[in-house]
Hints:
Blueprint: H1 16-29, H2 33-40, H3 53-64
Amino acid sequence: CVAEVPPADDAETVTETQAADLRALAAEVGVTEERICEKAGVASLDEYPAAKMKTLIAALEQRRSGGGGNP
């Protein structure tokens, strides 16, 4: 019997719901999914690292409040 080893924490990706929320927030502040994915080195937001989600949300929220944010 071979036990499945769960992926390392940094390998976990966002859920479908989280990816949809990220898309909506990005669209609201005028940032494309392509730009976010390019900066993160992933093919789509479905592959975005869960460990980096809070940082991305903070940057998008900062952009929404007029702070400029990085994405």
